[in-house]
Amino acid sequence: MYSQKRIVLFLIVASTIAGAQTVTSPTGSVPNENAIAPPSAQTEGLIYPGDVLEITVFNAADLHERLRVGDSGLVHLPLVGDTQVAGMTTAAAEMVVEKELRDDGLVKNPVVSILVAESQAFVTVVGEVGHPGNFPIRQARTVMDAILSAGGFTPTSSNSLTLQHAGQEPVKISWQSDDERNLKLRESLSPGDTVTVDKAQLAYVLGEVVQPSGIVINPSEPVTVLKAVAVAHGFTHMASLSNSRILRKQKDGSILEIPVNLSHLMSNKERDIAMFPNDMLYVPSSKLKSMAQGIGYVAQTASAALIVHAY
Question: What is the spatial distance between Cα 231 and Cα 237, in angstroms, rounded to a whole number?
Answer without folding.
Answer: 17
